[in-house]
Design brief:
Blueprint (H helix, E strand, L loop, with lengths): L7 H11 L3 E4 L6 H8 L3 E6 L2 H12 L7 H7 L9 H5 L7 H14 L4 H18 L18 H4 L2 H15 L8 E4 L12 E4 L12 H13 L28 H11 L5 E7 L6 H9 L4 E12 L8 E12 L1
Parallel strand pairs: 1-2, 1-4, 2-3, 4-5
Antiparallel strand pairs: 5-7, 6-7
Helix pairs in contact: 1-2, 3-7, 6-7, 7-9
Protein name: site-specific DNA-methyltransferase (adenine-specific)
EC number: 2.1.1.72
InterPro entries: DNA_methylase_N6_adenine_CS, MeTrfase_D12, SAM-dependent_MTases_sf
Amino acid sequence: MGSKYRLLPHLERVFAEIGGETAVDAFSGSGVVSYLLKVQGFAVTSNDFLNFPAVIAAATVQNSSVRLDQDLIDQICGPPADDRDFIQSTFDGLYFTPEDRRFLDSAWSHIDTLKGYRRDLAISALILSAARKQPRGVFTFTDGTKYADGRRDLKLSLREHFRERALDYNATVFSNGKRSRARRGGVFEIPDNTPDLVYLDPPYAPPSDDNDYIKRYHFLEGLSVYWRDVTIMENTKTKKLEKRFTPFAYKRTIEDALLRSFEHFADAGAIVLSYSSNAIPGAARIRDLLGKVKPSVEVIAIDHKYSFGTHVAAARRDVSEYLFIGRD
């Protein structure tokens, strides 16, 4: 939702100026910033409290050499290894065609036999395939015909998507000579709290309602574990998962959560925080909070467009994206 890809040139310059050997990306999301840090030569700890971002980071940041060979891609795209039908029956009539839902079950019948980075890569390719095929990339609605605008991503079958996305993920794999790691957990539980650089990109607390990532990405989260050890809210039309509380998503708890994050990384070389001008608290308050642990705080405002979709006609919202840079 945040389209951090557009901010990468700015982040690259900031990270290069800070320098160092080790970095933490505490809210990794799509993993694009963790990957940038790896490209820039850091040993990266990539973290998220959801499972599917942790899988993506394992495949692209922690993994330095393993790829999916063509025979395995063909096998996953071939006939099913068993007769499982969980996705077909649970999501009957939702999100995808019957053929696409059959493919997801079939793909998982093969993925279940994989281990290590091959499993991470295959799950990542499946996640990205589902996100690309779903109009707007989120799973808060069930009628996709409203957004069926004829773009290629919506025309491809999920099987065709998977073949392309598997090759895309293969192309991301490289070694920078450092050892990186991907983990799933809360920001306050990250053990590497004295790196040279910490990047924080928490959910932005809106002035009203909340910023619930599970509501938007529940299908991707479930898909990443084949809905094992998660609870589907059966009474919901979208079959979403139970909400997992995060203090960053609510205006009543965001200030304390930010301060606790800054305190957790108080001994890091530098703290870089991304935050939006249309969220709570405002820039002045965040600067005060970061200043409690880092005496020097620089604020950079970047004009930014948030894309609420995956195509050129999607509605966009002009805001400023702030980069707060705290140093000793």
